Amino acid sequence: MGLVAASVAVTGASAQATLQSVKQKGELICGAHNGLAGFGLPDAQGNWTGLDVEFCRAIAAAIFDNPSKVRFIPLAAKDRFTALQSGEVDVLSRNSTATMSRDTQLGLDFPAVTYYDGQGFMVRKKLGVSSAKELNGASICTQQGTTTELNLADFFRANNMKYEVVAFATSDDTFKAYDSGRCDAYTTDASGLYAERLRSSAPDDQVVLPEIISKEPLGPAVRHGDSQWGDIVRWTHMAMLNAEELGITKANVEQMKTSDNPEIKRLLGSEGKYGEAVGLTNDWAVRIIRHVGNYGESFERNVGEGSRLKIKRGQNALWSKGGLQYGIPVR
């Protein structure tokens, strides 16, 4: 704890100037997953795709009007928060759960929830299990240094069941162990289960069980101490949500700039000085939508039913369509 506190103290003073630092570098340094389909995944040529990756591109678009001014640093779960605390990355956008201890003890802020998730289980069909409550005595593969270990212990204790944990340092090693038969079940966030199933040696033989055993609000993290930077990260997500609510897309954003709708005028910068208030230009949201699109477009492209993962919007639908995603008003 002492080392973490010292790290936070060192970075606290310098954290005030994150936007200035990013501008001076000419690029945003984004802590990303080291390989999770749909969220953060580089191909053989080093081209990154994923919902979390596009969020960093949206921040870069807001700052530079150029979504390519991002350098992605792949981080394992055990290294991700240290990299942010030390200033190695400007923002962490790597399917990380916001929790009280991470907020209050690690010196981090979680400005937005970009994906509402929950922990689940995947098993082989031949195991003959249709519910997580049938896993008494099972061996479970999980990753060290994540919220999944505690959730797993809580679930089995609450249901008076026994289990054997088989833990690994990286998500890659964890899934490979499950896929090779080292354990009966694999547990991680449900989104991760759908992503990892794609690279199973037998994807059609895997089944994701129905139980969700935890709340996993996933989103970008920043260091404590720079409220302006936290605002920029928060309002990047809100801009994408509000754009979807207002029917503004990558294809029509230029035409929408002439709209008489006061909400659209404020969001797109033709009325008010909302961008300048956080150190950006007043067309900050136009830049985001022009280059990346609204939240629904990014979701569908990366993890939605039009993608390989085929995840339903569910809790990540807009509040007006039964979900939890709710854009704070620009006014």
Structural class label: alpha/beta
Q: Summarize the main sheet.
A: 6 strands, mixed
Distance between the termini: 41 Å
Gyration radius (Cα, Å) is 20 Å
Our estimate of the beta-strand percent is: 15-25%
Give me the CATH architecture of the largest domain, please.
3-Layer(aba) Sandwich
Count of domains: 2
Question: In DSSP terms, counting alpha (H) and pi (I) runs of 4 or more, how many helices?
Answer: 13
The name of the CATH topology of the largest domain is D-Maltodextrin-Binding Protein, domain 2
Unreliable stretches (pLDDT < 50, length at least 5) are 1-13
Class of the largest domain, according to the CATH hierarchy?
Answer: Alpha Beta
Task: Please describe the structure with a list of short key phrases separated by commas or semicolons.
six-stranded mixed beta sheet; 331 residues; single chain; D-Maltodextrin-Binding Protein, domain 2; 19% strand; 2 domains; disordered N terminus; five-stranded mixed beta sheet
Could you explain the architecture of this structure?
This protein has helices at 2-15, 18-25, 51-64, 80-85, 100-105, 148-158, 171-179, 190-197, 227-245, 253-256, 262-267, 284-291, 295-302; strands at residues 28-33, 41-42, 48-49, 70-75, 91-97, 108-109, 115-117, 119-124, 138-143, 163-168, 185-189, 206-208, 216-223. The protein is α/β, with parallel strands linked by helices and 331 residues long. The strands form 3 sheets. Strands 1, 4, 5, 6, 7 and 13 form a 6-stranded mixed sheet that branches. Strands 10-9-11-8-12 form a 5-stranded mixed sheet. A two-stranded antiparallel sheet has the order 2-3. The protein contains 13 helices and 13 strands. Helix 3 (51-64) crosses helix 9. The longest helix has 19 residues, at 227-245.
